[in-house]
Write the structure tokens for this entry.
Amino acid sequence: MVISDFLVIGGGIIGLSIARELKKRYPESRIIVLEKEDKCGLHASGRNSGVLHAGFYYTTDSFKARFTRIGNQQLTEFCNSNKIPLNNCGKLVVAEKPEDIPKLDELLLRGKNNNVNIHSITEKEAKEIEPRVKTLDRALFSPTTSSVDPSKVMQALSQEVLDLGIQIHHGTRFIKKNDQAVQTTKGNYESKYIINVGGLYADKIAKQFGFSNDYCILPFKGLYLYSKEPPGNLKTHIYPVPDLKNPFLGVHFTVMANGMSKIGPTAIPAFWREQYTGINNFHLNEFLELSLCQAKLFFNSSFDFKQLAWREIRKYSRAHLVNLASTLLQDVKISNFKDWGKPGIRAQLLNIKNNTLEMDFIIEGDHQSIHVLNAVSPAFTCAFPFADHICNKIEQLTK
């Protein structure tokens, strides 16, 4: 039996950030992070777009609005102090049709309400930032949106956590809660307090503790097509106006930390939780469970799952994905987009009571455990203030 003061299940960026914050608050405590893989950040934390978001998409009453702007600042400082290259390229949000203009106004208002540095600019000003951009009359410009290599962030954060005296037990997968202990593939663990940041399996783990009764993870596969154009050919991220009723931002151009660009992502429904490529990581029970869930959503969902699934599955076509991106930028050639990048899986939370996709982070817990659900984009950007909030919550629950 391994005994600790705090046991963190999941070694992604939020799990490590929570462990780091707990160690700062309780320096004498023994903190263990359980990570089922051989290194941290092999799932969402290392497979995300690498964009440090600014925080203007979200309503002021949301966790995402509270954490994104501050998270951007804190993660930028972390990268600078650890000499991790940042590409401070900014972001343009463009209008493709007249009905996008009121949506630009709504995003501008949200940004101002969230104290985010964001500007409404003319089409001419947008072209001065990126000459190839396509927009109708106006655009928004976010100067604080940037990009970084997420794997380098995870490497530096993992090392900092270890330097603080926190233990990371790799290759240790949660199996089940067993009375007062946690059973894993490498024996039992007992802890005064348990923090579940299990990503794609956070809902399953939470149910073992009596939580996530109204939720389940509905995984979506994200794919990017990488451009062969030379670094610096695209000056800034270019995004469409999103559908503010769902949590996806649409196909866009991302400028990476190395100056190269990519288009995507997709949001293709996955049939098991780690369906990255082919039949790797196939789980029959997950396949049956998710197939049944998706079948139900075809006939009854608040977000028209049938239309969403068809729209996203079409993006497996390289020609179709490039065609969608070409509405944002001039001179987009399919010959420049031949290589698919490493897939990611979005651990999107579904409310099974009303068949809706949750837009914000969800947190449930008590005096023995806390569970981070729906830790999706922009969770990477939000990680540090999000961890601070979780630790405040733990203090409240354990008084």
